[in-house]
């Protein structure tokens, strides 16, 4: 079976696999109140880069979850190597293994679109405490995509569809969140023009070459280049 985009990210251990990378994450975190009592969930943590950054730079509690076994292995070895006390779980955003009102801030960086996002949003709402903050960076289309454009995006990413900004806002509100605001807004091309710093950690080149995995990452680059004006991302901030 051909690997999915997530498999390829996991295989090569792609860090900061969300638009804006760790540089954007740092800026977003600076704008939140984070104390020793704050409980943060990194939902869909991938290789654990964001979680590790938070633990090293803030005095708070960090919990991370992802469903991909290779991502979990990578995050676990990162936390162990860096001796970080982070609670790591393998599980799905669609059915979170946490009690109601468990977190003050939830970061979800380029994850919802790969899930049944309505289910995931409702779970994130459940585990976030009242007045807690959701920060979601998600792929967003600049306009409604044609069926053909949606098909091409779905084939590369294995997703149901790419939502417009208004569709994301509607679905976040429908899950029960309030005060939804768009904090950052870029098409792929406008993002590249404002290029943030390159992620210094890059990816893991110690794994054996794998043509299928490489092809998947190439497909990703090609479609983003082809659709650079009609696809981009937004950071949505919402209150529980
Ligand atoms: C594009 S990567 C982003 C990873 C990380 N947030 C980052 O910015 O580097 C998407 C991540 O979401 C995870 N993921 C996808 N669907 C998921 C689900 N239903 N539950 C938990 N994690 C999921 C994948 O395993 C992958 O690690």
Provide a brief overview of the structure.
The chain has 240 residues and is of the alpha/beta class. It contains 9 helices and 7 strands; from the N terminus they run H-H-E-H-E-H-E-E-H-E-H-H-E-H-H-E. It has a 7-stranded mixed β-sheet, with helices on both faces.
Q: Got a strand count?
A: 7
Biggest β-sheet description: 7 strands, mixed
The number of distinct helices, counting runs of at least 4 residues, comes to 9
> What's the CATH H-level homologous superfamily?
Vaccinia Virus protein VP39
Q: DSSP strand (E) fraction?
A: 15-25%
Report the order of strands and helices: HHEHEHEEHEHHEHHE
Poorly predicted parts? none
Rg, alpha carbons: 17 Å
The rounded distance between the terminal residues' Cα atoms is 40 Å
By CATH, the topology is Rossmann fold
Main sheet: which strands, in order across?
3-2-1-4-5-7-6
CATH architecture title: 3-Layer(aba) Sandwich
Domain tally: 1
Question: Which ligands occur here?
Answer: S-adenosylmethionine
- Return the average pLDDT rounded to an integer: 94
């Amino acid at each position: 079976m051909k690997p999915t985009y997530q498999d390829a990210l996991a295989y090569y251990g792609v860090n900061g696999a969300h638009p804006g990378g760790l540089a954007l994450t740092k800026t977003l975190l600076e704008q939140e109140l984070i104390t020793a009592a704050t409980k943060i969930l990194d939902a869909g943590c991938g290789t654990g880069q964001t979680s590790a950054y938070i633990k090293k730079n803030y005095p708070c509690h960090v919990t991370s979850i992802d469903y991909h076994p290779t991502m979990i292995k990578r995050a676990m070895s990162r936390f162990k190597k860096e001796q970080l006390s982070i609670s790591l779980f393998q599980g799905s955003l669609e059915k979170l293994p946490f009690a109601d009102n468990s977190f003050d801030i939830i970061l979800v960086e380029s994850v919802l679109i790969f899930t049944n996002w309505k289910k995931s949003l409702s779970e994130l709402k459940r585990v976030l405490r009242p007045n807690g903050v959701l920060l979601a960076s998600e792929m967003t289309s600049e306009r409604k995509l044609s069926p053909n454009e949606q098909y091409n995006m779905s084939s590369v990413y294995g997703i149901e569809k790419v939502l417009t900004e208004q569709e994301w806002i509607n679905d976040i509100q429908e899950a029960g969140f309030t005060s939804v605001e768009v904090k950052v807004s870029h098409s792929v091309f406008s993002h590249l023009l404002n290029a943030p710093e390159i992620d210094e950690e890059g990816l893991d080149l110690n794994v054996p070459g794998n043509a299928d995995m490489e092809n998947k990452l190439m497909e990703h680059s090609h479609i983003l280049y082809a659709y650079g004006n009609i696809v981009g991302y937004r950071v949505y901030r919402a209150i529980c």
